[in-house]
Specification:
Shape: elongated
Oligomer: single chain
Largest sheet: none
Helix content: over 70%
Radius of gyration: 18 Å
Strand content: under 5%
Number of helices: 2
């Protein structure tokens, strides 16, 4: 497998992880009595459940950003290697 394919695989895995985590979070939210809205402009959370859900979404977002950053670094390194040849 060449470096570009390996980098693409890392990006694909990062996106799949992000999708899984978002589906898990939405599944937990659907299990509550009220399905929350994912509106970024919604008023501040009024319940501990809302605050916990927002915390979980933010953590998943940070994890995804880190994974995508690592994948982007791998792609840049791969492209640099190919240009150096």
């Amino acid at each position: 497998m060449d470096a570009a394919s390996a980098a693409k695989d890392r990006v694909d895995r990062a996106l799949a992880l992000l999708e899984r985590r978002l589906l898990e979070l939405k599944g937990r939210a659907a299990g509550s009595s009220r399905v929350p809205d994912d509106d970024l402009f919604a008023p501040e959370p009024s319940t501990e459940t809302d605050r916990a859900r927002i915390h979980d979404l933010e953590a998943a977002g940070r994890d995804a950003a880190e994974a995508l950053s690592r994948a982007a670094d791998a792609i840049r390194a791969s492209l640099s290697e190919q240009e150096a040849r």
